Amino acid sequence: MNDPHSSRRALIAGAGAVSLTGVLAACGGDDQPPPSSSGTTPGAAPTTGGAKPPTSPAPLTTKSKIPVGSAVSFGADGVIVAQPTAGKFIGFSAICTHQECVLTNIKGDTIKCGCHQSEFSAKDGRVLNGPANRSLPKVDLKIEGENISLA
User: Fold this and answer.
1) pTM reported for the whole predicted model
2) 65 Cβ neighbours under 8 A, 6+ residues apart
C-alpha cells in the first residue's frame, strides 16, 4: 500500500519519537557526584581560610530611615518596618493576608495592597479595609544601635 497519507504519518511519528528522545535525554541527571559535605568535590584541593558566616543578620535599614508615624516596606525581605511613635519599631509581614501580594504601597500610617486594595494600619498591622480579614503577622526585629535587622 503506497498511500501518501500513511508515509506522511510515519514520518511525523518518527520525528516526534526522535524529539521526545532528545527531551528525555536533556531531563536526565549527570554522572557527576554531588559535592561532599566539606564543600569540595572529590579530587579537588581543599580550600583554606575563606569567608566566615556572619555573626548576626545584615541590617535591613537604620532607625533614621523609618519615618515616625509611618513605615517602610522591604518587600524583597518580606518585612515592613514601622515606627508608630518616636523610638518604637515594629515589624510586620510584607505579604497581604488576602491573596499574598507583596505590600509596598505605604502612605502615612496606611499600608495599601496594590492587588485588591486591602488597607492595614502601619501602627499595629490590623485590617482597616478589606477584602483582607486578618491582620498582618508580626515579625521580630533586632535593634542594635542605629541598625534594624530581622531577629
Assistant:
1) 0.60
2) 72
